[in-house]
Amino acid sequence: MGWFSRRGGRSGARRAGRSDGPKMEIDRKAVEQHLRSFVDSRLGVEAYVEPATSVTTTTIVLIAWDGEWTRRAVGSAKEGFEISQKLGIPVYDVNQTGYPNRMREWSRRRRQGDA
Description:
globular; 4-stranded mixed sheet
């Protein structure tokens, strides 16, 4: 008996929630309030919508001009784009654009204690 045959009937099985990410309750009012506060207190904020994974639901990352960022779950890409439009900030699909270098630089400075 081969190793792969020991896995039983799972070879074609698909994990529940894999395409949409896990289902979770999102306090939309709290999310919007946090994101509004971030936008109002920083300059040059842009939004990046991240797709759901097998571990997380769809999220939105707001990144300020200096690279400071925050992430919150939004439930769907459509909701992420709608929230960004409501906030009046540019919004991008991270699968299309990637993350800006300033975000990585800001995170690196924080890890090194420079920020």
